[in-house]
Each structure stands twice: as C-alpha cells, then as structure tokens.
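Archive record
______________

***
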Amino acid sequence: MAQKIIVTLQDDLDGSQADETIRFALEDVRYEIDLNSEHAKEMRDSLAPFIEAARKVQAARGPKPGRPAGQRQGPSPSDVREWAKSQGMKVNDYGRVPQALIDSYVAAN
C-alpha cells in the first residue's frame, strides 16, 4: 500500500499557509521563520534600513557550537529530499526540510 505525505508550511506569526522560510542571524544566534509572502515582505522592509547600513561578514567556518567536528545530527537534507521525491512527495529543492518529513524518512529507514 502506498502512502502520500503532503507537507505544508504554516506561517509562524498567524498560522496561515506560509510561502517561504527565511533564515537570519542576530548576535551570533541563527533563526529561521516560516512566513507568508505578506509577512516576508514586512520583515524585509523593516530590516532594509539596517541591512543597507550594515557590513557583510563571512560566515565562520567549523563546527556549530556544542557539536564536535564531523558529527552530524540526523539525516542530511539532501537524503531526505531524494527519498521524499522517490516516494512521490512534494518537497522544495531548497530551504528547511520540515520536521514531519524528516520523521517520515527516519521511520522508513
């Protein structure tokens, strides 16, 4: 019996359907948020003056804090995407892989 799992993003502000995941960092803490297009535009517009005045810096290389070098936690996003596509599931080619999809991949493998 085949299964079809559909994963949808939910706007983290109001619970509506989200259109994208936005990643950002502030004071060495990285965040990501799922937003609909209206909220994403609001966020980008509100940050625009700060971004225009800021300097770009290169991301630090090396392991994330608290994680030993070379150790990965959980399956790779590319493995999950490849598996999901082979199962006929809709999955974005980039951005955060939803936890429900990762959980399905782990359960199947």
In short: The helical segments are 37-53, 77-86, 99-108. The mean pLDDT is 86. The CA atoms of residues 35 and 56 lie 24 Å apart.
